[in-house]
Amino acid sequence: MAAATATVNTPPSSSHGAPMAERPLTAEEVFDSVGSAYEDAFAGLPEQASSLQWLIRELSRSGRTRANIVDVGCGTGRPACSTLAAAGHDVLGIDISAAMIEAARERVPEARFEQVDVRDWLDRTSPHSLDAVTVYFSLIADVTQDEIRSFIAGIYRVLKPGGLFVFSTVPVDGENMQLKWMGRPVVVSSLPPKTAVQWIRRVGFKVEHEKVTKFLPKAAEAGICNAEDVWEEPHLFVYARKPGSA
């Protein structure tokens, strides 16, 4: 698939290392406070829906009708875990937020869910044990750029040959940026589009699709924050495959 690009700007009110008036929240605190309203704020992401259909189609083509899939940062379990489980796959959703895991278990009983940090999950997961991993905007808060690179390398390690990887992020070039997200003070890191895609290739993946889009979350409508606390986000989506036969 052809790559597409869009202009990417640093989020408003960001600073690199400057003190904030409020204590930054941890990722767990942020998503516990947002709760299930996150699903409403980010509903209707066309590229996310397309990525899930790509994943289901490619798993079917390779004969993996009951694939082992992990969604990192699963949130409420919808749409990723629900869509993949409905397609007949064995799905585990992991998230640092207890509130998100509770919501996911209620909304998507056909999948499994666990509250765990991605670092701990990667440490205990056996190499070459998974058919697919999805990451939708979860490797941003409370991480460094080096950790993001390490997580991607770790995901490559736990995938089987022929395993599939869908990665999405808010692709700004920043390390420990202090900003307001959904009205909440956070510290985030991310990689710009070119760097992220280059790293995914460098660890060994074959990149099959990359695209940058923009999305305005419906956070005010969902009751998460005021309208002035919402900004249009750039979104990078990458579809990748680990070389080898499934």
Automatic annotation (TrEMBL):
Q: Which part of the chain is the Methyltransferase domain?
A: 69-163
Looking at the keywords, is Transferase present? yes
One Gene Ontology molecular-function label: methyltransferase activity
InterPro entries linked to this entry:
Methyltransf_25, SAM-dependent_MTases_sf
**So which domain of life are we looking at?**
Eukaryota
What are the boundaries of the region Disordered? 1-21
Q: Which residues cross the membrane?
A: none
* Keywords from the UniProt entry: Methyltransferase, Transferase
Q: Where is the composition biased (Polar residues)?
A: 1-16
Q: What is this protein called?
A: Methyltransferase domain-containing protein
Protein's organism: Thyridium curvatum
